[in-house]
Amino acid sequence: LRTDGRVWNQLRSSRLSLTRWENGATCTTQWGKGTRVSCTCTAELLPPNPDRPNEGMVALSVDLSPSASTAFRQAAPVTTGGSILRSLERVLLTGGALDTEALCVTPQYWVWKLSLAVTVLDDGGNLMDASVLAALAALRHYRKPHVELAAEGSNSGVPPRWIQSDLKEPVPLPLHHTPLSISFALLPHDTAAQSTASAKVTLLVDPDAREELVSVGTLSIAMNVHGEVCLLDFGGGCELATERLREAYRLAAQHVQDLCQALETSLQQ
C-alpha cells in the first residue's frame, strides 16, 4: 500500500466544479485531497494571424499560485509551468482536439481567439493530469456566442456584432475529441540503492507530492476514449522497458474511460 492507502494502480478521486457566464466558463478540478487546479476559458474577436488567415487562435497560460505550495513562495519552478504548458499545446493543438479552422468567422478579417488560463491553486502532486482535465472541461463547458456580420458585408473592418444568449443560444466549441492525461511516477524497488534498471522500476499511477519527490522519472500518457494517443511524455531519469510502457498504456486507457465518463456526467448536471 501507498502512504495514502491506495494500491499502485489506483487514482485519487476527482471532483469538478463548473461555472459558465455570457462569454466564459471556468472549471475547478479537485484531485484527491491535496491538488486543486482551475481553468478559465474566454473568447474575443480579432483579426487573424496573416500567416493563417483561415484559422482561429488559442492562447494558453499556466500560473502557479504562491499559495499552492511552499516551494512556490519564492519563485514558482519554471520547468513545472513550462512542462504543463507544452503538454496542453500538444494535447489541444498538435493532437487535433480543437478545430482552429472552425473558429474562423470571416477569412482574413475576423476569427475567434480563445484564451485558456490555468491556475494551480493547491499542489498535492500530479499537476499535469489535473491541469489537462480542468482545461478540457472548461473548453467543453464554454459556449461560443453567435455573431452577425456588419451591414457593409463580410469583407470589412467593422467587427461582427455579438448576439446575446437570450436571443440566440450559444454553441459548443468545435472539439474533435476529449483527450485526458494519466501520469505515473517511476520508483526503483530498492530506493536505498537508487537502482534505475528497467526491470526494477515500479509504476505508481497518479503520484502525490511525496511520491514525486522520491521518483526517479515520470511518464504521462494523454489519449481519448478510443485509445488514440495524443501525448507521450517520458522525462527520462531511468530506463523504461517496452513491457512496462505497454502496461502503462493499458492502465491509462482504463482510467481515461472512467475520467471521460465522470466528465460527461458533470457536464450534463
Automatic annotation (TrEMBL):
GO biological process: exonucleolytic trimming to generate mature 3'-end of 5.8S rRNA from tricistronic rRNA transcript (SSU-rRNA, 5.8S rRNA, LSU-rRNA); nuclear mRNA surveillance; nuclear polyadenylation-dependent rRNA catabolic process; rRNA catabolic process; TRAMP-dependent tRNA surveillance pathway; U1 snRNA 3'-end processing; U4 snRNA 3'-end processing; U5 snRNA 3'-end processing
InterPro entries named in the record: ExoRNase_PH_dom1 (IPR001247), ExoRNase_PH_dom2 (IPR015847), ExoRNase_PH_dom2_sf (IPR036345), Exosome_comp_Rrp42_subfam (IPR050590), PNPase/RNase_PH_dom_sf (IPR027408), Ribosomal_Su5_D2-typ_SF (IPR020568)
Pfam annotation, one family: RNase_PH_C
Domain called Exoribonuclease phosphorolytic: residue spans: 28-145, 202-253
Subcellular location: Cytoplasm; Nucleus
A GO cellular component annotation in the UniProt record: cytoplasmic exosome (RNase complex)
Signal peptide start-end: none
MF annotations from Gene Ontology: mRNA 3'-UTR AU-rich region binding
Assigned keywords, A-Z: Cytoplasm
Domain of life: Eukaryota
PANTHER family assigned to the protein according to its UniProt record, in alphabetical order: EXOSOME COMPLEX COMPONENT RRP45, EXOSOME COMPLEX EXONUCLEASE RIBOSOMAL RNA PROCESSING PROTEIN
Family: Belongs to the RNase PH family.
Name under which the protein is recorded: Ribosomal RNA-processing protein 43
Organism: Phaeodactylum tricornutum (strain CCAP 1055/1)
Taxonomic classification: Eukaryota, Sar, Stramenopiles, Ochrophyta, Bacillariophyta
